Amino acid sequence: MSRPRDGKRALRGRAGRMEGGRGSGRASTGAVRLWGRHAVEAALNNPDRNHRKLWATREGVESLDGELPANFPLEYAAPADLARLVARDAPHQGLVLECDALEDVFLADVLDGDAARPIVVLDQVTDPHNVGAVLRSAAAFNACAIVTQDRHAPPESGTVAKSASGALEAVPWVRVVNLARALDEIAEAGYWRIGLDGDGTTTLAEALPEGPVALVLGAEGEGMRHNVTQHCDAVARLPITRTIESLNVSNAAAIALYAVATRI
């Protein structure tokens, strides 16, 4: 990236002339709107992203680690103007980027990769903050992908990207039509499928094998659906105290990924 030099670009437009309106991070068809330094910077550094336009304060541009290309579509704006382009009260940090959504990732491509890296499967986890947080943990613990059902998961959005803190650009997100069928494909590729449930008869540490692992987590409250549970090789629990009934799904994913990363 090459950062524009002061004076080289005129300040264009106020809020009344800026494109788009407030939203969760979905922009025009086929595009997403990202905000926050980590999410925007990661997207700018992702060669697989097609960038459409960056709205930013001068301080926001200066915070980027690198420089924008000379002809990058940049429009300077005041913080209040940027707030109109993102979800209500979203911490944009002076940066709002509109870009094309990422290309689809196919399960077969993930299964052809490094089997030593775990896969995270989410069953009807619809909260974009949770999905983003799981992506962040997946990146931290070197997971090769997350897998969700296409219909019962949030779309790629600014909210997901902000919660993922840059991990949306690093961790492949596979969307499938049928999660049970996807779990069958994962098993055929040699992965041991471990569902996480508070009522599991064994702990995660006891259920972990030496080989490839796919961790399966359900939505808070409902948990994994019965058909998904039937497609797991084991159902395990995290050894939490009775003081707390359950953990947030993103916290459970982080703990489970740590357990996989540190197994002996």
Automatic annotation (TrEMBL):
<dbReference type="Pfam" id="PF00588">
    <property type="entry name" value="SpoU_methylase"/>
</dbReference>
<dbReference type="InterPro" id="IPR029064">
    <property type="entry name" value="Ribosomal_eL30-like_sf"/>
</dbReference>
<dbReference type="Pfam" id="PF08032">
    <property type="entry name" value="SpoU_sub_bind"/>
</dbReference>
<keyword id="KW-0489">Methyltransferase</keyword>
<dbReference type="InterPro" id="IPR029026">
    <property type="entry name" value="tRNA_m1G_MTases_N"/>
</dbReference>
<dbReference type="InterPro" id="IPR013123">
    <property type="entry name" value="SpoU_subst-bd"/>
</dbReference>
<protein>
    <submittedName>
        <fullName>23S rRNA (Guanosine(2251)-2'-O)-methyltransferase RlmB</fullName>
    </submittedName>
</protein>
<dbReference type="InterPro" id="IPR029028">
    <property type="entry name" value="Alpha/beta_knot_MTases"/>
</dbReference>
<feature type="region of interest" description="Disordered">
    <location>
        <begin position="1"/>
        <end position="29"/>
    </location>
</feature>
<feature type="domain" description="RNA 2-O ribose methyltransferase substrate binding">
    <location>
        <begin position="33"/>
        <end position="105"/>
    </location>
</feature>
<dbReference type="InterPro" id="IPR001537">
    <property type="entry name" value="SpoU_MeTrfase"/>
</dbReference>
<keyword id="KW-0808">Transferase</keyword>
<dbReference type="InterPro" id="IPR004441">
    <property type="entry name" value="rRNA_MeTrfase_TrmH"/>
</dbReference>
